[in-house]
Each structure stands twice: as C-alpha cells, then as structure tokens.
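The records we work with from here on pair a chain with its fold. Here is one such record, which you should read through line by line:
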Amino acid sequence: MTQLTPVRRALHLATALDLAAHGLPVLPLRAGKVPFANCPDCLYSRCDGRPNMKTPGPCECSRPCHAWAAATTDPATLTGSGWASAWRQAEAVAYHPGGAGLTVVDLDDADAIAWARATLPATRTVSTTRGEHWIYRGAMQSANAVRPGVDVKSTMSYTRWLGPGSGPMADLPSTVRALVASKPSPVRAVAAPVPTGGGECRHRTPAFLERGIAMAEQRITAATTAVHATVYRTFLAVLSTHGGCGCLTDAHMQRLFAAAQSKGESARHCTDAWTNALVRLGM
C-alpha cells in the first residue's frame, strides 16, 4: 500500500488539474479530509489585510491557505513550488462550489435524502459515504444544519470531489435559498466571564454597556482591511472594559460574533478570538 501512495497522490493532482481546466476551483485536502493549515503569516489574528476570508475571493498566499479561499483554477498555482508539499501529503481533492457558480446540498442520511426527493427538484446527484450531494446551478450563501442532516455548501465553503455524479443539473431552487434565509447566523456559544462584582455592575450603567457593544459592532462592520486583527482587538477591548463586572452576557457576545460573521469570519475564528482575548486578560 505504501508503494501505491505516491501514485494515488499524483492522481489527486491530475484530477485537480482536469477539474480546474473545466472551471472548477480546487484545493488539496490533508489527512482527515480537511484543508491544510494557514501559513504562519495568516494564523488567527495575524493576517494583515489580505482578502482571504472576508469576502468570496481568492487567497493571495503562495501555498494552500485559508481553506475555500485557496481554491483555484490556475494550473501554474496548482503545480507551483508552494503547493508541491501539499500535493505530496494530499488525501483528497476538494472544490469551492460557489466559485464555479454552483451549490451543493449535502444530505447526510436516509431521512435527509427522503426529504430532498419529496421537496427539491431532481438534479445531478453524487453518492457520498453516508448520503448524497445534490448539485444545482447557481451560487448562494453557505450554511450548515439548515435542517436535520442537511448542509448547504456554496460560497465561502468547500466540499470533497467525489466524482461527476449522474443526471442533468437543475437551476438552484428558491426552496434551498429559503432554507438559509430562515436560518439565523451560526454562533458557537462560549461562556461569558464569571461575574467578579457580585453580579451587579457598580461602576458602569446599562446605557454605557449598550453604547460599548454598539460601537464594537460598528468598528467590526466598518473594517475594510485586517478583519481578523480588528475582530480580535475589538473583543479584547470589550472584555477589558465590560468583562469583569458580570453584566456582559451571551447575548452581547452573540451580537459581536454576528457582526464578525457579516464580514466573512467563521464561527471557529470568532470562538478562537474570543477565547484568546479571555486568556490574555486572565478571565
């Protein structure tokens, strides 16, 4: 099996080049079928204003970085020296559906497939390990868990390439768009700081807190560069001012997360930035 590994990985690159030639932005996946880690310059809050994760645009790094944003159709990039190590370690090929004007409805189990067959128009179908991918022509916002066993993968998302599938491709139905439109922005819950002043704020008024949260939301949404760093610094400022008295709640945190996500930040990055700020402040 070890002798076949280089052959299999060479086939991944060949597959990627073929897909790219047909207009599908692709990227390698490492063990565990997950993207390669960001480069050292772009980890967490140290990405200095690159467009990577803020909007549906390409990553500017010379190696596979920032997950879906690394996906490319450029053969020179795919075969460049910065990507060579990744292809040597690659376990699968993924693609960015939204970058090709597509949407994948990821159905994880039999119940989800049954729902799709009863609700959605037939389209190109690809079998997966546990269920099916239904692929539609048209891009939209991505969202996970829009209903039990159903994820929607399009812009700012990636999915594994599992073959061309079967059947003609239909246009994206309004039913799928409605699933995401009715789903609130995902926020990963993180415990608010433990009150240190008996649960009652003795030196700040509710209006002061509300103004602080509103200003923090505005600061995040107004950012045009260095969004990662802005989110972290804003979380740090809010926690340093309001985090020790017990008045800062999960609802306030969720407002800040939602503001960050409106700029393209992931729930994972919001959680990491919030946790890092708590650690730095010793909370």
